[in-house]
Amino acid sequence: MNTTESETVRDKVREGYGRIATSGGSGCGPTPTCCGSSASSAAELAQHVGYSAEELAALPDGANLGLSCGNPNALAGLQPGEVVLDLGAGGGFDVFIAGRKVGPQGRAIGVDMTAEMVARARRNLASYRERTGLENVEFRLGEIEHLPLPDASVDVVISNCVINLSPNKPQVWREIARVLRPGGRVAVSDLALLRPLPPSIRHSVEALVGCVAGAVLVSETETMARDAGLTGICLKAKSGYIDGMVDWQDPLYLKIISELPAGTKPGDFLTSLEITARKTGATAIAAPQSKAGPRTLQIYDPAMCCATGVCGPQVDPALVRFAADLEWLKERCVAVQRFNLAQDPAAFVENDVVKDALAASGEAALPLILVDGRVALTGSYPDRAQLAALVGLAAIPNGNLDEPA
Q: What is d(CA 264, CA 165) in angstroms, rounded to the nearest whole number?
């Protein structure tokens, strides 16, 4: 895309979101959608993607414009004292939630290229300060391709359904890497493509403002993040968001359906995508190890008949459950390695942490569970809830174990 085309796209997005800011939300219709919705529908959408009723009730009036396609705050695992940057902050929805999480010693900064959005967010500052007693939130006018922040100045970058709107996404990812401190992390929710959209949808201005026409393939997103220098990239598609848009009879998605090939549906092409990654280097804040991005789980088993112990005439039900739980972790981008003393004795000898544990406790230390190379548990197999806690996954409001803590 050349410079003129990029500016045309940017102007269309700015104009569309300017209307959303001044209208209070309804950009494409009265039902929940990425291009804005009414207050009640916006709250419904936010709860659908994982925001709690308590978080929503604490927001200043008008901060939630119904522009979400995920919950980057939950992905980020924010810690007190961190500096967090929200790309495309809109009315301040995620910034105000982040401000409460990082507390008085932290800072939450929102950047948006639409002057009307920045003005709306700034009007909400007084209400936020009154409700929280915090002076830790600010909003800046700027483009996410040229962030108004110095190098290595933030601990966490979040974004909610915005990067897809950029005409120069590789530059956005380079800017993310530039402003992150060494050890900093990324937690983004965005719309992405599972396969290319028909040309008629790609060229639709309404679909562009609705976070559809500007989406790129999942594989392209991963490539851009990696080329920017980020590591530990984890991508998780969540098709339920798109299915929800169709269930709610959103006008934009109904129009998209009419343009799709016969026998297909929006969820065949589009997905909400959770993206976590980090910048290499020492962690910026002396806090518990970041829960964003994939972790490494190593299991050192006692001698068993096969790699998982699920073998022979009498299978231990606990080992069957544990094997299933490890597969569950792998689906959530946790790197799992498993070593059996009978089959992989060299692995026990070559790891100094394992050798020390065996020297201290003998085989009673087995199974030995390491997380990111450190001893997390000895002598027993954890259940799914314990595993989730060890690698930074925790229960979400509906009771499922699925989201970063």
A: 24
